[in-house]
Amino acid sequence: MARRRLAPAGAAAWDRVRLAGRALRRWLQRLVVRLRRLLRQLVVRLRGLLGGGEVARQSLVALALNSTTSLVAGAFLGAIAATLDALPGLLMLVPAAIGLRGNIFSAFGNRLSTTIHTGTFELSARRDGVLAQNVGASLVLTLSMSVLLAVVVKTVAVGLGLANTISFLDLALISTLGGFLASLVVLVAAVALAAGSARYGWDLDNVTAPLVSTLGDVLTLPALWLATFLVDDHVVASVAAVTLIVVSAVVFVGGWRSTMATLRGVVRESTPILFVAMCLSTLSGLAIEHRLETFTALPALLVLLPAFISSAGALGGILSARLASKLHLGMIEPRRLPGADARRDGALVFLLGAPVFLFNAVGAHLVGRLLGQASPGMVAMVVATMAAGALAVGFVVVIAYYGTVAAVGIGVDPDTYGIPVVTSSVDFFGAVTLIWAISALGVV
Fold this sequence. Notes:
Elements: H1 2-49, H2 54-79, H3 81-86, H4 90-117, H5 130-159, H6 168-200, H7 204-227, H8 234-256, H9 261-290, H10 292-297, H11 299-329, H12 340-370, H13 378-409, H14 414-440
């Protein structure tokens, strides 16, 4: 009797379950259809925003390469911790020396990009040609600004009471010799990119800043480290440093007074902004040196540092380059508030930044674990990096737009001023925001 009474109730319950299951299945099917429709609409809008996706593909490839090699640079930075301890003040030099390569040669690439867009680029070795004059100006700035960087670093160190820093001559030798060695390779790569852009139709604005930053990161640190070996012999180091200082001064005066208009103009326009950029980047190094114990406690954070700062600078470089080219071509107007086209470029940088900073965080954690270095953990690394990255990119977008517009307003070349303003500012701001995120989120 009990079974006969329960059977109808059990059957009814089973029917209700089946009906509920069917209803849930239909609801999920409708949800999937709506999500697919929404995703298609989003893809269409993003493709429109990103110029059919080609801009995003070029930029993401360059940024991915930039992040990968910057993580290698971060691993190298951790590996030479003993050298940094043995030569106090050297860490202050590192961000500015890396940034100097990017500032000089990203601006170099931007100027060539503009000549390509305007149809005036010519791949020629003629001494008075646009390419040769830009190459000459870049080498003049490399030597002279490297000496000036040593002056800035030593002055800041003494002024802020950083004890027992290495001598000015040692700093000048490391900065100039190491910087010049790295710059030769970066220069060849920048010229090759320009030639490839002219031949294959690449948009140089989308690849120059990330790839030059990549080479600057991965080459400058080893070059500076190699130069430190000369410091062991005091006499040799002093003679070499004085020789490089004299050569740099002679080269700078020749560039400043050159009869070639492009070379002279680039040197004169670049010197003030590169000086400001070096000061800001040196403050970045000072901020890191003061919190060095935070990074050495969890060395995976030291692996993250170059990639984080380089990516933020490269994103700003992309935006500055695109804005400068469009201003030259009359495609956008320098306004107090950005127009629709400029806003789309800013949105592009935000969209590119999300996967790039995620890659940096995951990569730094994995590299740290691979090298047996302590890490705050995958989740903590990602949260801190994404939070700091959002702040850094917001800062970059504002600085890139108004820095480029201000350059046009005062009558200087935005190609020469845009990227140094962005990268030097983000060197300092990026380091500060990363340190803040690490501390605020309790990573250490």
